[in-house]
Prior knowledge:
The structure holds 2 protein chains of 2 kinds. Chain A is of the alpha+beta class. Chain A contains 4 helices and 4 strands, in the order αβααβββα. Chain A has helices spanning 4-21, 36-40, 43-55, 95-106, and strands at 28-33, 61-66, 78-82, 88-90. Chain A has a 4-stranded mixed β-sheet, covered by helices on one side. In chain A, α3 (43-55) crosses α4. Chain B contains 25 helices and 17 strands. In chain B, the strands form 5 sheets. Chain B has a 5-stranded mixed β-sheet with strand order 10-9-13-11-12, with helices on both faces. Chain B has a 4-stranded mixed β-sheet with strand order 2-1-3-4. In chain B, strands 7-6-5-8 form a 4-stranded parallel β-sheet, sandwiched between helices. In chain B, α3 crosses α4 (84-93), α8 runs parallel beside α12 and α9 runs antiparallel to α10. Chain B is globular and about 85 Å long. The chains are: A alpha+beta, B alpha/beta. At the A-B interface, α1, α2 and β2 of A face α5, α7, α8, α11 and β10 of B.
Amino acid sequence: MVTPLEMIRKKRAEAVNRIISKGYLSTKRVYVGMATCEIAAGSKEVMQVFRQAIANGLTDVYLSQKGCAGRCNLEPTVEVVEEGHIPVKYGRVTPERAREIIERHLKKGEIISEWVI
Amino acid sequence: MGHLRKEINVKQIQYKLTLCDGPTCVHNQSKQLRDALESEIDKAGIRKSVSIHLSGCLGMCKQGPILIVNPGYTMYGNVKPADVSEIVQSHLVSGKPVVRLIIREDHLYNRFFRIFGDADFFGKQMRIALRNCGIIDPENIDDYLSLRGYEALAKVLTDMSPEAVIAEVKKSGLRGRGGAGFPTGLKWELTAREKSSEKYVICNADEGDPGAFMDRGSIEGDPHTILEGMIIGGYAIGSRNGIIYIRAEYPLAIKRLEKAIAEARQHGFLGEHIFGTDFSFDIEIRLGAGAFVCGEETALIHSIEGVRGMPRPRPPYPSVSGLFGKPTLINNVETWANIPVIILDGGDWFSSIGTKTSKGTKVFALAGKVLNTGLVEVPMGTTLRQIVYDIGGGIPNNKKLKAIQTGGPSGGCLPADYLDTEIDYESLAKAGSIMGSGGMIVIDEDTCMVSLAKFFLEFTQDESCGKCTPCREGTKRMLEILTRITEGKGRTGDIEKLERLGQMIKSASLCGLGQSAPNPVLSTIKNFREEYEEHIEHKKCRAGQCSALLSYQINEKCVGCGACKRVCPVGAIEGIRKEKHRILPDKCIRCGQCYQACKFEAITKA
């Protein structure tokens, strides 16, 4: 009989494959905070900017929502994670800032230090 | 470290080092290690491209001191000052990690560290209950599965008996995170012991303290961990019915829970024959209308049963006779979130974190007059000073800290003398407050303690269910007295009257709400009695918050610009242009608008 532990290992492997098939191995991963607090601070609009950019042809980016990390006074927060680089965390991201993050950081690799937490 | 960051340009940083600064590692010479690192980095000439950060306890004390190098999240253990030169030269200069010192451990806790560990706010924290919050997509079960989600459940069903699960929880020393701190393992054992064909498992997500959002953050960030904890609880006590009682005012949390439950059912983690075993368990959500008293377990059970949410005397405890008269295991959201970690990382490990009587971590909602507000999770035994200053970043505008309020409307105010109190259930109670569910409000010198006590009492007075007369009538009378004190109509003897009423309510009320309702008043009287006396005897509010006790005057600095006159909503300011103006005390409503409008500091508040 297959034990629950063996079953969960298989399920985990499947889950990882599904995440990878959604583009997890892209060069850059972008996480937008989407809990009630972040949404109240405007993260839905920020998320929309990233979604739109991907729909308009921005490639090699994996976009995901996440819960609240606890940084209330700096919300909405956005993380840009890139293998081999130090994860960058932006605070108080507005749709305008999101557009700049796309242009400068995601496309040109420039970290916008003024907004880093 | 905030100052370091400003000097160093973020763009030049190639490596970020995190050094464990927990008490055990400090003992193991982490300070010497840090000095060695600084000097080796200077020697190698890479000062500008490396930043060093100190973290709180990383929970790997046996292998401390720990040094983490990012990017790459390379973790070095048992690092000796003699190893530092090799790490700097090989890893930081040549880019080759020092393999012999690397430790590879896949713990559930502190996952957030990979992304957030270098920021001061996060680095001093230790995350067990909130381990996935801000890391995973809460609406995608795959994200949870990829981080060993539901492995604890699988482990329990593979090779642990219900008794072994309870033994593990008991060994962990976990205590109820809802506030009272009852040992969780014992609660499980008591419920498991009851013989009954039907038992219930309840998650208390009725979060109601003003300013508290720990449970909401936890559910919205990682709903599956709560489900997993509950399923394990159901297995341990022999129940097949789980209920999450949550407020209807948390729509997003409810939506995410519903989605999580549906996905868990699809994967066979909920429902009949979980993982193909004989164990079946399912969870449903019950919505509360937002009554504070329904956070009390017996009132909550009444509310689920469909009757009025009022507490009843205990015993019998819910473990014997709970929902629909059946044995019921009821735990708070944060308690449930700890369970999968205890199962996978072990009760022994869990009990190595924290103080003698309180194990593990506690989540606090840090709010009030503090620079970095937010959700923090710290090991028990962390001091209030570390939370307010190291994590919270201190008080804005260089104001002085006056007090810290913990435990919400049931808790108390601790004055600044208690800053070095190490947080656990006992030490907070000894200091005159409570752990509570985790509200923590920082108060600076601009806050009037009488008004603050009044605010909390307004809340409990409003939320009193009315069953016990001392609570229903007593809180009302106390509020009347506090109101008249803040309006400058306080009488001699009012303080004593408040103390007498407070003691009476505490001793004559049935449930925790009533027994703790006077706490904010009693603790502020105990620690800030002189403020009450000033209000009553001298009609003075030193914080300048009680408007009825204020008077505004215009001094010699007035140039007669008329700015104050224009903003005054009641026409209480008179004067001719370019001459000194005057406030008419009888007309003035003390709104303070003139005070803010004046550009010449010509209006004084007394």
